Amino acid sequence: xxxxxxxxxxxxxxxxxxxxxxxxxxxxxxxxxxxxxxxxxxxxxxxxxxxxxxxxxxxxxxxxxxxxxxxxxxxxxxxxxxxxxxxxxxxxxxxxxxxxxxxxxxxxxxxxxxxxxxxxxxxxxxxxxxxxxxxxxxxxxxxxxxxxxxxxxxxxxxxxxxxxxxxxxxxxxxxxxxxxxxxxxxxxxxxxxxxxxxxxxxxxxxxxxxxxxxxxxxxxxxxxxxxxxxxxxxxxxxxxxxxxxxxxxxxxxxxxxxxxxxxxxxxxxxxxxxxxxxxxxxxxxxxxxxxxxxxxxxxxxxxxxxxxxxxxxxxxxxxxxxxxxxxxxxxxxxxxxxxxxxxxxxxxxxxxxxxxxxxxxxxx
Amino acid sequence: xxxxxxxxxxxxxxxxxxxxxxxxxxxxxxxxxxxxxxxxxxxxxxxxxxxxxxxxxxxxxxxxxxxxxxxxxxxxxxxxxxxxxxxxxxxxxxxxxxxxxxxxxxxxxxxxxxxxxxxxxxxxxxxxxxxxxxxxxxxxxxxxxxxxxxxxxxxxxxxxxxxxxxxxxxxxxxxxxxxxxxxxxxxxxxxxxxxxxxxxxxxxxxxxxxxxxxxxxxxxxxxxxxxxxxxxxxxxxxxxxxxxxxxxxxxxxxxxxxxxxxxxxxxxxxxxxxxxxxxxxxxxxxx
Lengths: 364, 287
Description:
The complex is a heterodimer.
Chain A: H1 17-41, H2 49-59, H3 70-105, H4 117-131, H5 137-143, H6 147-167, H7 175-199, H8 202-213, H9 221-239, H10 242-248, H11 252-257, H12 262-284, H13 290-302, H14 306-330, H15 339-358
Chain B: E1 2-11, E2 14-24, E3 29-34, H1 40-48, E4 55-60, E5 63-64, H2 70-76, E6 77-80, H3 92-98, H4 110-122, H5 138-152, E7 163-167, H6 175-192, E8 195-199, H7 203-209, E9 212-217, E10 220-226, H8 227-230, H9 233-240, E11 244-248, E12 254-258, E13 265-268, E14 274-277
Parallel strand pairs in B: 3-8, 3-9, 6-7, 7-8
Antiparallel strand pairs in B: 1-2, 1-4, 4-5, 9-10, 11-12, 13-14
């Protein structure tokens, strides 16, 4: 039977996607760099693009320049750069976590905020902010700057595990069950955060409410030196899950038949997303819907292949946060809009649009 | 050889399989037949390693199944489940390429793409390769999934035989595609030395395409052997609990029909057993 011979006639079809896919990541990377540069230049104290580039290169020791204004230097390296770097970390972390969670739950509506990872991490962070000085003083003295991200990680891990246990059976997570489990976890966390708000003193209250609205302005270089390695390593590890997550699209048993160790994959994705979401949430607070939007936008453009959706989601997430933050601090300058408010304003309509698209699946 | 030896599977002290011994030889298509709940799927899951037997052993190419790593197993055998729900819109070629998963790095090589395309062509779905899976009809989806498992065992891993395990592969297919899918499975067995196991419900398809048949009832292997020896009207009637006749087609073959000769009705008796009164299914002839 000649049809059994693996011969292919003509050009390899199905390649129509590849140009889009090949262009996607470089395009996003260039756009991200451009937006980051724009964000570094923009603000109450305006810097020229050329000036920013020269200052950055001088800092790296690549060029010599003697015309360095102290003020330019201070604005760039103490205010804008940590903020933009943190924005990139937050966006990349949330985008990658969203993509990985959607793959793991086999559900396009999974997202760190909707399924409660973020509020779980938030509750733990609030615990540390309010009770830290009293109850876990000894602990925070040992752990130092790691206390907050570590607590947020544990909170996120507990929330993800709980939602996954409740919402998944035989490898399927019905949308309704997953969202309801997320609502339950969010409600518990909200109640806890509410309790801490009640207990908090004035300074803690200010910290808490700033934190709940979300901001990438907080951390300086010291905090970044903790957050950056955690986020970079966990995002890099999540990128390596693209291939098994692709196989998981078939379901748990078929993925197992293809040689995927499904249990270990689940464990790794849950731990890594909790770690990454925890680390960023500890310092940026609640930033909604980025983890949902970024991977979906990538899917709309170039299909569901996780080898593109994971890195594309991370890059686009970073881009969204950098742009949103720049808008948030220039729109009502000299005041600032909380970035969490802005992403929620953008994200909620997007989420509704997704629900409408999915209506057909639920027979409506 | 893929072998189950005295396999017993108990779930919550209920025996789903009792003392089943079965061997799948390279180069043959073995059909598993039996009523619903007879243990066909449980047996298949035991052969794939999804279920650990409570007693007995399963070996593949002479090595116990639990001694294989997941990837080694995936290189030597492919499994087609009854129904696959897809969470995201992959296109047909991407699905077929997933069959190359155990063989390739994160980016499939040109060879893997060629094999996936050839597998799609073999099941008659080459034209669907860039179509999104959720937009395909039920029959097309079933065939694309078949292409995926074919791509997985397209080339034997080393010089050891590979196996293909199919759980009701023709359930959602129309008559013509039933024939072509089982024809492909049989040709793969005969021409490439693949050991193929398929759970089937259609006696006449089994009669035409299977080299050997395993007949199951109540978690036990009722009889196993060459198709002509096992598929006899008296054995089948007894196994399925309804009268089954074999009708000579006059062309050297026979077809099976449910019901006794003469009257053409079926009704339920008070005991709830089906009392068949004549042929209610006519079946295709062996040509």
